[in-house]
């Protein structure tokens, strides 16, 4: 579904991604772990061109997103994105947040968009908050709304950029449970996370990034119990000891 070849990205003199190659198969859950500044979020944002690569290619469903004359906005309709900062529109209620893109981009009728939105709000346990203002919600509720909003576009893949990093520890679980349910339903997912237990128990594959490159990737059990890269071992020993 996604193929990344030779991806490079710099910000000024800082090279953030260095010749990154990665494939994601339909239905696969891939988690990306690594220290802060290793390039995880930049890689994720390059998948839907929120960041434009300096070199390399990003293929999605057979289309090269980095090619000239590609309608990136049309392809993005099939790529759901959930940010660590929620990115909800505070001047709209929850339901309007969820129906805006389906109405304007998918050309759904208001009635159809609301039916779809209420279904997804129900699936994340928030149907009772459809007419609430985002400012009245907890962080966990806001992130569940953000997930429901992304699902309203009926994406083929979901990208999660550290979706629990802005949440209080006691409400992280409610967001992770929604993500586990998506994985059980077969949603293709790429997740940048510091939640090691989620990476270990939900992922089909774990990717460890270090200094702008993929240092190691593989099945979760092998990565967590017998990593081959010294950098992976160092990261996990430090992280899991916390």
TrEMBL record:
Task: Provide the reaction this enzyme catalyses.
Answer: a polar amino acid(out) + ATP + H2O = a polar amino acid(in) + ADP + phosphate + H(+)
* Localization of this protein: Cell membrane
UniProt protein name: ABC-type polar-amino-acid transporter
The enzyme's first-digit EC class, named in words, is translocase
Major location, coarse class?
membrane
What sequence ranges are listed for the domain ABC transporter?
Answer: 2-236
| Record's keyword terms, sorted | Amino-acid transport, ATP-binding, Cell membrane, Membrane, Nucleotide-binding, Transport
Q: Which GO terms describe its cellular component?
A: plasma membrane
EC no. given is 7.4.2.1
Q: Which PROSITE patterns match?
A: ABC_TRANSPORTER_1, ABC_TRANSPORTER_2
InterPro entries, per this entry?
AAA+_ATPase, ABC_ATPase_HisP-typ, ABC_transporter-like_ATP-bd, ABC_transporter-like_CS, MetN_ABC_transporter-like, P-loop_NTPase
In which family does this protein belong, per the annotation?
A: Belongs to the ABC transporter superfamily.
Regarding the membrane, this protein is recorded as: Peripheral membrane protein
Organism source for this protein?
Collinsella intestinalis
* UniProt keyword Membrane present: yes
């Amino acid at each position: 579904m996604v193929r990344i070849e030779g991806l490079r990205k710099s910000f000024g003199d800082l090279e953030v991604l260095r010749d990154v190659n990665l494939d994601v198969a339909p239905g696969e859950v891939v988690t990306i772990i690594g220290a802060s500044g290793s390039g995880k979020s930049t890689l994720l944002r390059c998948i839907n061109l929120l960041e434009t690569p300096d070199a390399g290619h990003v293929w999605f469903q057979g289309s090269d997103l980095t090619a000239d004359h590609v309608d990136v906005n049309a392809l993005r309709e099939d790529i759901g994105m959930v940010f660590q900062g929620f990115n909800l529109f505070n001047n709209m209620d929850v339901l309007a947040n969820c129906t805006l893109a389906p109405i304007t981009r998918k050309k759904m009728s208001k009635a159809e968009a609301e039916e779809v939105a209420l279904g997804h709000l129900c699936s994340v346990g928030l149907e009772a908050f459809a007419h609430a203002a985002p400012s009245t919600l907890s962080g966990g509720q806001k992130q569940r709304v953000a997930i429901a909003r992304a699902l309203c576009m009926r994406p083929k893949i979901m990208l999660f950029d550290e979706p629990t990093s802005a949440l209080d520890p006691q409400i992280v679980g409610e967001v992770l449970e929604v993500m586990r349910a998506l994985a059980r339903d077969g949603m293709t997912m790429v997740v940048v996370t510091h939640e090691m237990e989620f990476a270990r128990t939900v992922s089909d594959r774990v990717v460890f990034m270090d200094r702008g490159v993929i240092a190691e990737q593989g099945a979760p059990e092998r990565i967590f119990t017998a990593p081959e890269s010294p950098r992976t071992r160092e990261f996990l020993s430090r992280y899991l000891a916390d």
